[in-house]
Amino acid sequence: MPIEVLIKALFIFFVVVGAFAPVITWIERKQSAVMQDRIGANRADVAGITILGLMHPLADVLKLMTKEDVVPRGANRVIHILAPMVGALPALIAYAVIPFGGVYTFGDRTISLIAANPDWGLLYVFAIGSLATYGAVMAGWASNNNWSLIGGLRASAQMISYEVTMGLSVVGIFMVFGTLQLQDMVLAQDATFRVFGFLEVIFGIPIPWLDWLRLPAWGIFYQPLAFILFLTTVMAENKRPPFDMPEGESEIVAGYFLEYSGMRFGLFYMSEFIEIVVIAGLTTTLFLGGWTVPWLTQETIIGWIGAAFGVGFATGLCVLVHFGSFMLKVLLMIWLQMALRWTLPRFRYDQVMDLCWKAILPLSIANIFVTGLVLLLVRG
Amino acid sequence: MEIPAILFYFFAALAVISALAVVLNVRNTVAAALNLVVTMVSLAVIYVLMEAHLVAAIQIMVYGGAIVVLFLFVVMLLNLRTDTFPPGRQRLMKLVAVPLGLLVLAQLLRASGGLPEAPPVPQGFGGYRQLGIALFTDYVLLAEMASLLLTAAMVGALILAKRKID
Fold first, then answer.
1. Mind listing the pLDDT tens digit for each residue in A140-155?
2. B3-123 to CATH, choices 3.40.1400.10, 2.30.30.90, 1.20.120.1200, 3.40.980.10
3. With an 8 Å Cβ cutoff, are A156 and B30 in contact?
4. pTM for the complete prediction?
């Protein structure tokens, strides 16, 4: 059992997060270039080979590693050095409860493709997320620079505010699926529902000729408002544009990481990109059905393929198909975050706060009420 | 020794050391606040080992996360360069605090000697389901009263803050 957990942890660390994060820096450069009608990163090469600019992450790492690590005069040395690590740790460990594949039975062994599946899975993510503030606040305070301090204070206010709405915006999802375990949530989404089924259940009007019109039982179809609210709040938690108040290049230079150089700056930079992967994984799990394939449940796949080639082969195929489906959805969510980052203009600081407390908070509470009412009508 | 026991002793020691660092760090109040975070998170790990998962999550979310606010108070309200308490007052505080602390320690040592054997943990103990059911059936009046109290405190804080701005 511990070895199985270790393998999964290493898999997540190296494949899902470790390999993704550097590639995302390339995606960001190329996508922004395409959106702004430029060519984009294409100069870094190894012996003349550029592979569409994919050598740039390598060049980045070399540059950051060889830069001098400066601690400014008058700064608190210990906290200054600790801050990037404290900032990166939550991003790295939050992934532990996100499933990257389903539950498979090979003979008498059952394998669940998730590193840890505690009873309180989603609460774990939120708890870890609430610790993510410390990296920015510590960095801002310890740098002995007024811009940094303002950045750190902005980061704390923004992240504490959006934590509240982040929790409230997904309460509807717990209510629909009745669990906090992320693997169970995805298993519940591996199904379909009748689009007009509510007419029969609530009003007693059966319409059998529309029964073929089915949607995957994904969170986004049950809770479309929650999807938008959740995506907004997690993007604000990640402090990227349009919510980049703590960095605010045009007003407070670079905010909380202004006094960082070399690999310590690189750690802040990387934790932002790792958080993008975590956000994409979490939104996929909660709203886009995780590893499921739409309209094609695991039993159906095993039933069809298993009849022809044997159940073991069909289950193995399922593992590959599900992992591919999960990665495809994660990539889609990463693309969406990048597109939003390069499309939307920045908010002003008071607009960020107004959006949180005056728009998202009331809407998420209204969402909880409406969800409760509908569940009461449907399930009795 | 089993893994849970090792984890328990490690995090218990960490909690005690960082708690000591909170009270002994009179010069650097920010470091004291950060040590308080370490104490809270180590306590959360101990709650996980005790199967109280929801309490652990809330411990980190409410206490661990809220110390940021304490940190900001320290940064914005206290003058970090000098000791703000006058020495005379500090001596008086030490005179009161040390005997009180010793008294609590003596009580703890006395109580820990005669503890009864803990009953086995029931199925699903400490989960959100059990806590939710208890909170919204048996203790619903108390839960609502607590939420009203918090709302009143929030409204009061808002009024105080607004009066200064307008």
1. 888 888 888 888 888 8
2. 1.20.120.1200
3. no
4. 0.84
